[in-house]
Specification:
Length: 212
Amino acid sequence: MSLRRQPSEERLLAYAAGTLSVPESVVVATHLALRPQTRAWTDLGEAIGGAILEEAEPIALDGQALDATLALLDAPASSGEPAVPKGADASLPAPLRHFPLGPWRWLGPGVHVRDVLGPRDGDCRVILLRIAPGQCAPRHTHGGVELTCVINGAYATEDGVFSPGDFEEADPSVTHQPRVVSAEPCLCVAALDGQIRLPGKLGRLLAPFVRL
Ligand code: ZN
């Protein structure tokens, strides 16, 4: 059973290097906003990643370097927050406050989805998914990579429970049906590359609702 609840090292390094797609970066940034302890490693990657790539020699990450990075994270922000644009939601984690949101759309019993407008890369886009307590997302697999970060509430899959800040990576090899296990609705942000694939006739009926 995988207990990973944060992005892979490859994805964190790509984020730090600025080579991750914008939609995937938005979801990784949301995770980092909710889980600063992961951000420490991303910041280290930004600081030394170039050296690692150029030298191709292992560099030990000692405790002092990590402590120094954590201290930087505790420093106040150097500039004020940008204004929240019209149609955005100021209650969301900071990386999501800068984007207008589409209307909530019904996806199934207790399941609603809305588009995060702006971050897009080809077929990859960002959505917010809100699922009521005790309800499930449609059972599905993926046409491409799906990155999910929990904002509020919690859901469970065969891999266990995902709580606020937890990050899940899925791809065409994964079929799952997240089920909300929290007393409050579960709100997630997800970057979807390609189409969600829903098996069966119900899936064909629902598929248009997860398209942008
Ligand atoms: Zn999925």
